[in-house]
């Protein structure tokens, strides 16, 4: 399946901003089952752009905008091919057996087995883990499925209770949150169980009514997680929906938690300007598979 | 040369010059008052008018007596143009450049700063006001001498010259402006003995009395005073001389340290140079000295802005 | 003043040197166990032997006057401005014979090559972790590991352009590596200024001993920096980035920038435009190709590191990635001088270079390992405990000198975060005859502990400063030589030819 994603971020300043430097993580990373057929990054005003891969292998574009500006627009336009996720038919590994390899795994996957900024191993998390700890004869993949389902059942999807800088203690305290919080919380439990788990930022393409090529409803960035399943590798799970990530989950970047993968982060100079940010997202299934995402399109909306 | 470095040099020179002018004004005013009959002139309050500090002074002091005014101008750190403040600011600017200026210059300025920190009103009693200011004046001459003899004639030196010349030109117009108003309330006062001694004091405060006498003899006339302080091309504190020197320094800066005749990047300095070279005292007095002086001060401010924008601003 | 002439002029005074006794159980840098001076120290020792207390006192006073006049001062952290002090200087030189130096030099180059390969590997493919030689967490949890530097590959693969390797000499007379400094090692200006002082105080002795020059260091540093400029730039612009006048090493920043003839810049003098680094001059922006930075990683670039930092320049990391500017030392080199990583340095030399280490290191125990920790905690008072991420002697606890309360505190800290500490046995540092006050207004020679910090430069080829900074603990019995902790320094003489 092919998806075209137009991700437009507009920063507005009430006083001129200048010497603006930003790091952008918006180019979808390649991964099993997902291929980026085309990508284009457009910045207004003119910016110098270089790109590199960060320590997790994500694409990063570094932008440098020197001239004073009242608005900074970053448009990421991607054409992504997504295959259906593989069935988990790999040899099955009960937890007891899995944990025997723990010493080596804790080295090789150190980043994804230890606490991180938004995934601290807090006492409330440990108590929650105790309620949802794995059984020794439980398959690792089954356990992960059970956890994401359980989390979905225990916590409410409530936008507005947390913000992007909330760690998992916020959702534990509030009893609800958004996809980012569901992901952080599930990651915390999996790490405590000894299952390497990482944060995925990306998009969830809306499911279309038959015959309708334009998406319905609100679209926003999405976050979920990947757990390392023995002999299967990194497998996506979406605790916000309580199951495996499917062929509409479009991955952009992975990291220990949100702190590693913010879509745009940076600084600018100004004389006391306040910054506003608006994001608009347009995910569509192109009718014509030959349509080029490199067509800049109209920025005026 | 880094803008930050040029900026520090320029302001170090300005603050030094400003401190020196304060000391001159105070010294002269003091002696003027000692020699005057009681009640003559504006007393110490006139001095506050000269520098435009009357409001600030009144806000913090009860009476405009000698001790208060001397203290205000000399020690008061809340007064940003007190001698102590100016010396402190000059020193701050030099400290950031310690590695770029000569150690002799740093030593002079730092010692002056350390001494200024220790000044007390008791020093006036112990040394006498005259003693105090004449020692201070010598310190400034020494600093000027150290700059002359130990600072390489590179672009950095030119920025010192720009700062110093601009500050000097500005101060001389202030001095002339207010003195003119305070000292010449009525036309018929011209030529009276009191007036003479006042004008002599004014010239002395600019160290111009001897130069005046050499040029124009013993009779002190208002127009000749204006001539020597504003339009003289050879007296080093004359506004014209200062602006010529500033122009030469700007030309060297613009040419990357080489000798050059012209400059383009600070048009306000051009304009003021032309104006001063074409100026003549009788016409200016006729048309209104005060307005003329205000115009020169505006030009000085514009020069400061343009120099900053072109060469110094870095943040 | 001339050592030999003063000595003869003051023949009536009681010689001070005669009373000097090298202590037992430690290596004396000037005298052999048999009592006479080492072969290579003989000419200097002979001169010193004739000098009296007053001459020594005057020697020291002259040296201090000179240093003060030269403005060789340092600021002490935590003290306000005005707390500038001269780094106390002891005029009795420390002498290293040519043969010993030859070995040291080879060992130092080998070591810095390996450290460089290590840093390049850590920020590249991280083979050494994947091969299991060093635990992942040791690096990933190191306070000096910079995730934001992963993937940066500087010209020539050189991350560590300037290294200061701290060496101590054990009772056996061998040099051991005590720690590495791969971030922004300081002290080299003292080496050069100290030599200037001895050149004036004892020119004949210096000449007679055929001492190798140190004055070429700034030129060597500049050459190394120029060699690391981005490709294709034949005459790169180099600048030295300082945190400013309040930094403890500001004098050195001034000194080196003047000696190299490069601009001394602060962060606010710089700006990144279009992924290039520029400095703001009165004539507009001028591009900088090589930045010798003397500020810590954390403050370099607010985009990637501390967002509140005003000391560095935003966008620098991207400019480095764009290949338009090289910085020395590279970002994240601190992983190489982490004190826990130190324990693995001999392995590193074998791993990257396939060579046996020439210089041994001081035995180092990682307290993150439970059995090791148990052993050390049993006899805590017999070890030196160091925090892994710190430098400059901060946070070091010397077991035998520590009070019970300090030991209890240390024990608590170790148990709370064992991975943050290492333990080393107390090395009985070598001693050197040093001028000290006799308490009665005079000056006597007494043995004082010394170490040695040689400086290694890595440009297109390695360059080693002949000698280095000999630091001396001026308090009797003290083992702490750091300038920030009351140490002094000596001129270090490396002899040109075997004697």
Summarize the structure.
The complex is a heterotrimer of chains A (301), B (315) and C (499). By secondary structure, chain A is an alpha+beta fold. Chain A has helices spanning 95-100, 102-108, 123-131, 140-154, 168-174, 179-193, and strands at residues 2-24, 34-44, 48-53, 59-65, 69-82, 156-157, 176-177, 197-204, 221-229, 233-238, 243-244, 249-255, 264-270, 275-284.
Architecture overview:
The complex is a heterotrimer of chains A (about 300), B (about 325) and C (about 500). Chain A is an alpha+beta fold and about 300 residues long. Chain A has two domains: about 1-85 and about 265-285, Immunoglobulin-like (Sandwich); about 95-260, C8orf32 fold. Chain A is built from six helices and 14 strands. Chain A has helices spanning about 95-100, 100-110, 125-130, 140-155, 170-175, 180-195, and strands at about 1-25, 35-45, 50-55, 60-65, 70-80, 155, 175, 195-205, 220-230, 235-240, 245, 250-255, 265-270, 275-285. The two termini of chain A are about 25 Å apart. By secondary structure, chain B is mainly α. Chain B is about 75% helix and about 0% strand. Chain B is built from 15 helices and no strands. The longest helix of chain B is centred in the N-terminal third of the chain and has 33 residues, at about 5-35. Chain B is globular, with a radius of gyration of 19 Å. The model of chain B has no long low-confidence stretch (mean pLDDT about 85). By secondary structure, chain C is an alpha+beta fold. Chain C has a domain at about 365-425: Dna Ligase, domain 1 (2-Layer Sandwich), CATH 3.30.1490.270. Chain C has helices at about 5-10, 40-50, 55-70, 100-120, 125-130, 135-140, 190-200, 205-210, 215-225, 250-260, 315-320, 340, 345-355, 370-380, 405-415; strands at about 75, 85, 90-95, 160-170, 175-180, 240, 265, 270-275, 275-280, 285, 290-295, 325-330, 365, 385, 395-400, 420-425, 430-435, 445-455, 455-460, 460-465, 470-475, 485-495. In chain C, β9 and β10 (about 285) form a beta hairpin. The model of chain C is unreliable at about 1-15 and about 75-85 (pLDDT under 50). The interface of A and C includes residues 21 and 22 of A.
């Amino acid at each position: 399946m092919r998806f075209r994603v137009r991700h437009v971020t507009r920063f507005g300043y009430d006083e001129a901003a200048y010497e603006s430097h930003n790091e952008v993580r918006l180019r979808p990373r390649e991964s099993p089952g997902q291929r980026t057929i085309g990508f284009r990054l457009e910045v207004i005003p003119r910016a110098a752009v270089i790109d590199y891969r960060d320590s997790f292998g994500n694409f990063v574009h570094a932008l440098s905008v020197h001239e004073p500006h009242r608005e900074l627009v970053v448009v990421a336009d991607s054409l992504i091919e997504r295959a259906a996720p593989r069935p988990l038919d790999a040899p099955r590994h009960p937890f007891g057996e899995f944990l025997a390899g723990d010493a080596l795994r804790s080295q090789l996957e150190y980043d994804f087995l230890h606490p991180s900024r938004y995934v601290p191993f807090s006492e409330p998390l440990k108590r929650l883990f105790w309620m949802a700890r794995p059984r020794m004869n439980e398959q690792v993949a089954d356990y992960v499925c059970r956890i994401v389902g359980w989390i979905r059942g225990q916590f409410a999807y409530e936008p507005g209770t947390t913000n992007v800088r909330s760690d998992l203690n916020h959702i534990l305290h509030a009893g609800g949150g958004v996809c980012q919080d569901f992901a952080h919380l599930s990651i915390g439990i999996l790490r405590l169980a000894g299952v390497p788990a990482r944060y995925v930022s990306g998009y969830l393409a809306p499911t279309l009514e038959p015959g309708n090529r334009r998406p319905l409803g609100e679209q926003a960035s999405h976050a979920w997680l990947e757990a390392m399943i023995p002999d299967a590798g990194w497998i996506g799970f979406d605790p916000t929906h309580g199951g495996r990530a499917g062929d509409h989950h479009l991955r952009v970047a992975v990291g220990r938690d949100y702190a590693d993968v913010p879509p745009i982060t940076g600084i600018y100079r100004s004389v006391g300007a306040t910054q506003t940010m608006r994001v608009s997202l347009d995910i569509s299934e192109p009718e014509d598979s030959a349509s080029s995402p490199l067509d800049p399109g109209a920025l005026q909306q | 040369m880094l803008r930050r470095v040029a900026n520090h040099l320029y302001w170090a020179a300005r603050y030094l010059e400003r401190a020196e002018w304060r000391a001159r004004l105070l010294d002269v005013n003091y002696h003027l008052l000692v020699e005057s009959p009681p009640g003559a002139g504006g007393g110490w309050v006139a001095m506050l008018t000269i520098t435009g500090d009357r409001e600030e002074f009144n806000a913090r002091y009860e009476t405009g007596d000698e001790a208060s005014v001397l203290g205000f101008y000399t020690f008061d750190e809340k007064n940003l143009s007190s001698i102590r403040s100016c010396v402190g600011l000059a020193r701050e600017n030099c400290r950031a450049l310690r590695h770029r200026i000569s150690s002799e210059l740093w030593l002079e300025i730092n010692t002056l700063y350390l001494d200024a920190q220790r000044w007390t009103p008791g020093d006036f009693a112990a040394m006498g006001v005259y003693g105090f200011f004449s020692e201070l004046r010598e310190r400034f001459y020494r600093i000027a001498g150290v700059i002359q003899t130990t600072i390489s004639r590179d672009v950095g030196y030119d920025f010192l010259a720009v700062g110093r010349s601009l500050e000097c030109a500005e101060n001389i117009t202030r001095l002339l402006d207010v003195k003119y108003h305070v000292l010449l309330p009525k036309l018929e006062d011209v030529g009276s003995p009191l007036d003479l001694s006042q004008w002599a004091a004014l010239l002395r405060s600019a160290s111009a009395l001897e130069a005046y006498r050499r040029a124009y003899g013993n009779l002190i006339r208002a127009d000749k005073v204006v001539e020597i302080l504003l339009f003289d091309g050879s007296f080093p504190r004359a506004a014209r001389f200062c602006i010529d020197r500033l122009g030469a320094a700007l030309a060297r800066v613009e040419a990357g340290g080489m000798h050059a005749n012209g400059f383009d990047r600070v048009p306000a300095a051009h304009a003021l140079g032309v104006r001063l070279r074409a100026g003549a005292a009788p016409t200016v007095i006729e048309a209104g000295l005060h307005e003329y002086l205000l115009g020169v001060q505006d030009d000085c401010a514009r020069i400061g802005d343009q120099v900053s924008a072109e060469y110094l601003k870095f943040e | 003043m001339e050592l030999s002439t003063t000595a003869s002029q003051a023949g009536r005074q009681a010689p001070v040197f005669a009373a000097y006794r090298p202590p037992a159980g430690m290596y004396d840098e000037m005298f052999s166990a048999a009592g006479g001076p080492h072969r290579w120290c003989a000419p200097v020792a002979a001169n010193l032997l004739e000098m009296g207390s007053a001459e020594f006192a005057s020697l020291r006073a002259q040296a201090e006057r000179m240093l003060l006049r030269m403005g060789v001062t340092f600021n002490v952290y935590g003290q306000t401005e005005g707390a500038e002090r001269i780094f106390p200087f002891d005029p009795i030189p420390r002498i290293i014979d040519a043969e010993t130096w030859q070995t040291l030099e080879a060992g130092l180059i080998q070591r810095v090559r390996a450290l460089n390969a290590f840093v390049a590997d850590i920020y590249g493919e991280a083979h050494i972790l994947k091969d299991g030689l060093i635990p992942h967490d040791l690096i990933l949890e190191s306070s000096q590991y910079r995730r934001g530097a992963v993937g940066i590959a500087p010209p020539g693969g050189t991350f560590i352009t300037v290294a200061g390797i701290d060496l101590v000499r054990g009772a056996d007379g061998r040099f051991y590596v005590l720690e590495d400094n791969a971030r922004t090692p300081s002290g080299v200006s003292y080496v050069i200024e100290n030599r200037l002082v001895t050149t004036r105080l004892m020119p004949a002795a210096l000449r007679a001993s055929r001492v190798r020059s140190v004055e070429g260091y700034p030129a060597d540093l500049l050459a190394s920096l120029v060699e690391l400029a981005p490709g294709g730039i034949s005459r790169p612009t180099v600048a030295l980035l300082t945190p400013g006048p309040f930094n403890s090493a500001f004098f050195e920043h001034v000194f080196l920038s003047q000696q190299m003839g490069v601009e001394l810049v602060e962060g606010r003098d710089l700006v990144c435009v279009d992924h290039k680094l520029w400095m703001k001059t009165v004539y507009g922006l001028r591009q900088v190709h090589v930045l010798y930075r003397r500020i810590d990683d954390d403050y370099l670039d607010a985009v990637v590191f501390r967002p509140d930092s005003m000391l560095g320049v935003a966008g620098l990391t991207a400019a480095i990635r764009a290949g338009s500017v090289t910085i020395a030392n590279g970002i994240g080199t601190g992983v190489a001088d982490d004190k826990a990583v130190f324990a693995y340095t001999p392995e590193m030399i074998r791993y990257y270079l396939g060579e046996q280490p020439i210089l041994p290191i001081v035995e180092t125990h990682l307290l993150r390992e439970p059995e090791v920790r148990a052993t050390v905690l049993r006899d805590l008072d017999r070890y030196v405990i160091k925090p892994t991420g710190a430098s400059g002697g901060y946070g070091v606890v010397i077991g035998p000198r520590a009070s019970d309360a300090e030991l209890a505190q240390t024990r608590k800290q170790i148990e709370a975060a064992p991975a943050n500490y290492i333990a080393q046995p107390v090395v009985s540092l070598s001693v050197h005859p040093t001028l000290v006050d006799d308490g009665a207004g005079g000056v006597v020679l007494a043995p004082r502990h010394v170490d040695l910090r040689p400086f290694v430069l890595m440009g297109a080829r390695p360059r080693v400063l002949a000698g280095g900074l000999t630091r001396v603990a001026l308090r009797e019995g003290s083992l702490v030589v750091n300038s920030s902790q009351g140490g002094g320094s000596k001129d270090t003489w490396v002899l040109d030819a075997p004697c």
